[in-house]
Design goal:
The structure holds 3 protein chains of 3 kinds. By secondary structure, chain A is an all-alpha fold. Chain A contains 7 helices and no strands. By secondary structure, chain B is mainly α. The radius of gyration of chain B is 18 Å and the shape is elongated. Classes of the chains: A mainly alpha, B mainly alpha, C mainly alpha.
């Protein structure tokens, strides 16, 4: 457990944030009311944004707060309100199926963890985007509009299609009105 | 900015834990909305990995962050369409439970 | 002129395609008119080709390269020899008359147009067969005429007998075709060519050995195999059984295909390959004996048949036997000459029988009688045909049959000569038995008799034309005109000069010729008259009651009536073992093969029953399965890498 050896400031911050994120995730799974769950996921999203900022990816962190914590959480809440918002998730039944799933998830996690531990990692990463004169958002903007122009445009197309598709799908159909 | 003292293992382990929690939720919850939320959780776990590698990987560069940005966009589109589908389904069946989505016909 | 011979078969093909495009509902007169006119043009061209060859020796050949297999070239094209030219005339002439006759006979048939389509296709195939320059092309058309025969015999397929007869004719001739096919393959393997002239040259110069078979052995083998093909097609013993059954087809078909043209294709094949047969005495002996035995047996069977068409069918088998016998004893020109005269008088007899059947709607001889007054034209023309068949001077059959008998005796086959003479007697008897039962005496079925009438001009005109030909065709090759046809046909031997083979080589001597012998002529005429006399005494005698014979207690009668029990014998030795084999196969298939199949299918079913529960439609179950699979793959990958745990 060599990473406990040096408790620097950033490490401490990371540990606190991680614990909060995992706590929120577990709450998300243990709440019974759907609306609380939606609130819990908001916590997870904000925690993730904090991790990004901690890692120096400030633009991603801001985007995470705006899109996930802002837009998506609100969208989910609207969906809950539009459907049966009184719905309660019954307490997790420990049926055979659920036990198998829990076991499988745990095993998968352990396997992945072993794989991570087995790998030897290079020395601490240098700064890729902060050393030079440009800041992180500027560097990302350069990358998006130079190297990733076509994927960027494609993603914008995807968003338009998603928007139109969502409108068409959610729109009441004629036979339903009759 | 000083060199980061967070070891990559701990970042990746956080990703693994989030991913497994999300997977467990997606496979056991009954409400479609919660399943979608859990899928978002898994996507976030993947995003943490991408950003971590962008900073701490073998050859750190900006690609990881750009990918994370794309993932966020795709996730936004996914949740929009997914919720629209949920609304349509709810209007049809008066239910928002995954177990009722077992038929191809109306 | 011979360069245009390819147009002759093309005309009926054009007719076939035209009628096909016109559809089933085309008006009868138009359909028949177009077909007849096209074939009539073909007849004119045939006559032109025939006469253009009169002054020349050898054959006119035009070929184009079709395929190259290794170093071998396969050609297509056409070849006009003197034999081919004669066949062109005979086929076109009979076709034209039958096309005309069918307009009356098939009147108001539902599938009138289809009938003419088939006829056109047949005439095309037959004419193309006749002018084929190589064995492969000939074999293709050989099979096509077989197909047309099948289609036309089974034309009234809704009658079970017709469908059965069509199948029988197809299968029995196919047995012979296998022999021909093997012969063609052997010849190609040994000479590298399908071309007739190449094969003849290789055979004559002895360059034909194949593997361990010697040259002469191979010639005998291929000649006999090809003859098996001819036996099937020309309904020779022992494969003659299909022809009488094929009488279930419409009567014009019987006249065209089963009397004048297709059944003569077997004789034509032997004549076409005659240079090959000439090189093998054993093969010729086989041909002669099969022909002689067929001539005798079939004429004996014809004595007692009650169906008018069957009598004439057996007569056809018998006459084809004569032709084969002539070829076998070396009388090449006589065999071909008889082919020609027979085509005329046998087509006449069939068409006359068709006219009778059309008038009174029965084929049973014992329902007829006294038709002379009602149908004078049919009466007189049938008489001409019967006299020609019986070999009475000066009708056509006399000259050709007498030539054959003379050649048989003079070439040293007294037993075969005796066979031929007995058959001639029987022939005269059975055909006049038909004649008297049909036209003489009192009508035995008054209702049918009242209804009887002569057909329209389209039916009587072909009868008259054929009757004239049956009367005079013999003079084409009589001492009176210096045996003109004989000399014409022998000009084919002139090919030897072209090929550079000395004319003394037996390969290019087309048999032998014999001068007419007045004594033998008189004998055969006397035998024919005796047969007629016996028939007249038995069936045209006012003192003798004509009753339907029962044949009880008369072994010889039953032997003839039941066709020497050959159908029964074939049933016992071929069909019955086949059925046993089929039963065994059926058992194996039903209980063993099917058993395995059923077990496999049940297994799959049971597995499917179990797996069905995994297909719940529950998304999360599928997701769980995917996750477990992912874990297994990951675990395997980590385990293989080692050092993880």
């Amino acid at each position: 457990m060599h990473f406990f050896a040096s408790f620097t400031g950033s490490m401490t911050a990371f540990l606190i944030i991680s614990v909060l994120i995992i706590l929120c995730a577990i709450m998300l799974l243990s709440f019974r009311k759907v609306i609380y769950m939606a609130l819990a996921i908001g916590g997870v999203f904000i925690g993730c944004a904090a991790v990004y900022i901690l890692l120096g990816a400030s633009f991603i962190g801001i985007a995470q707060v705006l899109i996930y914590a802002g837009a998506i959480t609100i969208l989910i809440m609207f969906a809950i309100m539009l459907t049966n918002h009184e719905a309660q998730e019954p307490p997790t039944k420990w049926s055979v199926k659920n036990i198998i799933i829990a076991l499988g998830c745990a095993l998968l996690g352990v396997a992945l963890y072993l794989a991570i531990r087995h790998q030897t990692w290079s020395a601490q990463g240098t700064t890729v985007n902060q050393s030079s004169t440009v800041s992180n958002p500027v560097a990302i903007g350069m990358a998006l509009f130079q190297q990733y122009t076509i994927p960027f445009e494609l993603v914008s197309l995807l968003l338009i299609v998603g928007l139109v598709g969502a409108v068409i799908l959610a729109q009441p159909r004629k036979e339903d009105e009759e | 900015m000083p060199t980061l003292s967070i070891p990559p293992q701990s970042l990746l382990t956080l990703g693994v834990i989030l991913f497994c929690l999300g997977l467990f939720g997606a496979l056991t919850r009954r409400n479609i909305i919660i399943v979608l939320v859990c899928v978002e959780l898994m996507l976030n776990a993947a995003n943490i990995n991408l950003v971590a590698f962008s900073r701490l990987g073998a050859s750190p560069n900006l690609d990881g962050q750009v990918f994370a940005l794309f993932t966020i966009t795709v996730a936004a589109a996914e949740i929009a369409v997914g919720l629209a589908l949920l609304l349509a389904f709810f209007r049809l069946r008066q239910s928002s439970e995954v177990k009722d989505m077992n038929q191809n016909k109306l | 002129m011979a360069a245009y011979a390819w147009i002759i078969p093309l005309l009926p093909l054009v007719g076939y395609i035209f009628l096909l495009l016109l559809g089933k509902k085309a008006p009868e007169g138009f359909v028949a008119g177009v077909s007849t006119i096209l074939v009539l043009i073909g007849l004119g061209l045939s006559l032109g080709v025939f006469s253009s060859l009169a002054g020349t020796d050898g054959a006119v050949t035009y070929t184009w390269k079709w395929l190259s297999i290794g170093s071998h070239n396969i050609d297509v094209g056409f070849q006009v020899t003197h034999l081919n030219a004669l066949m062109l005339v005979v086929v076109s002439l009979v076709s034209t008359l039958v096309f005309l006759f069918s307009l009356g006979y098939m009147h108001k048939d539902e599938r009138f147009s289809v009938f003419y389509q088939y006829l056109n296709l047949f005439v095309f195939s037959m004419l193309a067969l006749v002018i084929s320059p190589n064995l492969l092309q000939m074999y293709i058309f050989w099979e096509m005429v077989g197909l047309c025969s099948y289609l036309l015999v089974g034309f009234w397929y809704f009658k079970p007998e017709a469908a059965l007869a069509a199948k029988k004719s197809f299968i029995v001739t196919r047995i012979g075709d296998v022999g021909l096919f093997i012969a063609i393959i052997l010849l190609f393997a040994s000479t590298g060519s399908f071309d007739f002239n190449t094969i003849f040259q290789a055979a004559a110069s002895g360059k034909i050995a194949l593997g361990f078979i010697s040259g002469s052995g191979l010639i005998t083998l291929t000649a006999i195999l090809a003859f098996i093909g001819a036996v099937g097609k020309s309904a020779q013993f022992p494969l003659h059984v299909w022809l009488p059954d094929a009488m279930e087809g419409p009567t014009p078909v019987s006249a065209l295909i089963h009397a004048a043209t297709m059944v003569a294709a077997g004789v034509y094949l032997v004549a076409r390959l005659y240079p090959l047969f000439e090189l093998s005495q054993p093969a010729l002996t086989v041909v002669a004996w099969i022909g002689g035995v067929t001539a005798l047996l079939a004429s004996l069977m014809a004595l007692t048949q009650r169906d008018i068409k069957r009598v004439i069918a057996y007569s056809t088998v018998s006459q084809l036997g004569y032709m084969m016998m002539a070829l076998g004893v070396g009388g090449y020109v006589y065999g071909v000459f008889h082919l020609m005269t027979h085509a005329f008088f046998k087509a006449l007899l069939f068409l006359a029988a068709g006219s009778i059947i059309h008038a009174i709607d029965t084929q049973d001889l014992f329902d007829m009688g006294g038709l002379r007054k009602k149908m004078p034209i049919t009466f007189w023309t049938f008489l001409a045909g019967a006299l020609a068949l019986s070999g009475i001077v000066p009708f056509a059959g006399f000259w050709s049959k007498d030539d054959i008998l003379t050649a048989t005796l003079k070439s040293g086959h007294p037993v075969l000569y005796l066979f031929g003479l007995i058959a001639a007697f029987c022939t005269a008897f059975y055909i006049f038995r038909v004649f008297f039962l049909t036209f003489a005496g009192k009508p035995r079925d008054e209702k049918r008799y009242e209804h009887a009438h002569e057909g329209s001009w389209v039916m009587t005109l072909p009868l008259i034309v054929l009757a004239v030909l049956a009367t005079i065709a013999g003079f084409f090759n009589s001492p009176l005109n210096g045996n003109a046809l004989e000399k014409y046909l022998l000009r084919d031997a002139g090919d030897a000069v072209v090929a550079g083979i000395p004319t003394t080589s037996p390969a290019y001597l087309l048999g032998h010729t014999y001068p007419a012998n007045v004594g033998l002529m008189a004998l055969s005429v006397a035998v024919g008259l005796a047969g007629i006399g016996l028939a007249a005494w038995r069936y045209a005698n006012k003192n003798r009651e004509i009753t339907v014979p029962t044949g009880e207690g008369n072994f010889l009668y039953m032997l003839s009536y039941r066709k020497f029990y050959l159908d029964e014998i074939y049933y016992a030795i071929v069909v019955a073992p086949g059925k046993v084999l089929a039963k065994i196969s059926d058992f194996v298939d039903r209980y063993i093969i099917d058993g395995i199949v059923v077990v496999v299918s049940r297994l799959v079913y049971v597995i499917g029953l179990g797996l069905k529960y995994t297909q719940t439609g529950q998304l999360q179950t599928y997701g769980a399965a995917t996750m477990l699979g992912l874990f297994v793959i990951l675990a395997i990958a980590l385990f293989r890498q080692g050092g993880v745990f």
